[in-house]
Amino acid sequence: MHVPESAELFITLLLTMTERYCHVPDKDCQVSFLELQLELLDDFRLRLHQLSQCQMQETIQASYCGIMNAIHYIQTVLEEWNNLPFFLQLYSYKKRKSMCESLLRDTEKHLSSIKKKDLQPSTSTEEELETSVFDEVIGLYQHMLNDLLQTMCDRVMLDIKAKSRSYRKEKWFYMFVIEDKKLMEISLSAYPMLEVINSSLHSLQELLAKPLFTKIWQQIAVELNIYIFEEVILQNSFSEGGATQFHFDMTRNLFPIFGVYTTKPENYF
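and the corresponding structure tokens:
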């Protein structure tokens, strides 16, 4: 996993805090430390968001990918912590305390709740612990990560579209059939488009954590499929030779680029 040093140090800080306050006998004190951790997590997320808004000089920038890796790493760690007994118990205590304080502030509501408890079965322990303390912050990190992944995908697609102009304008209706399929070659106008696809995917694979790269190459494949269908197939007329050439470009040249990352690239096109 590509883990930026800043994210690793931040998680180490949170872990050190947890190791110290988990032995404190006072639950209220533990909750206070937990709330401090949640504030730190939110501050760190906002800082990452600020950094992600800096103008990118290149389509694929290492620092931008590093931000996504940091978010992914923190989110993965928090999802693991979410299932730890210590945090589950602390969440349960915090939730019960919050409910009690709310009931005490409103006597009438308190009495109404007591009546409901008499009529309804008590909440099981499993239901009380079905969520945990980090759910909200994990959701915020995930939302930010989705936005960054989509932004990166959009930037890559802009490059692909820019390099595909000549390919879109090919005279597909004027191409003749090549009888000997062994003599077929890739369309010259496809080279720039395929080159930027290949180089972009390679760079992303080098810079992103594997789960993130898997998401983004699949998203690029989906959007590329739509783009080729709408801008090449629907916008042109094809002779038999043109259709054969287009099929050759796709199956023998585009698909193998994605074939490095999946055994069935044709499923995405």
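(Above: one complete record from the training split.) The chain has a mean pLDDT of 88.
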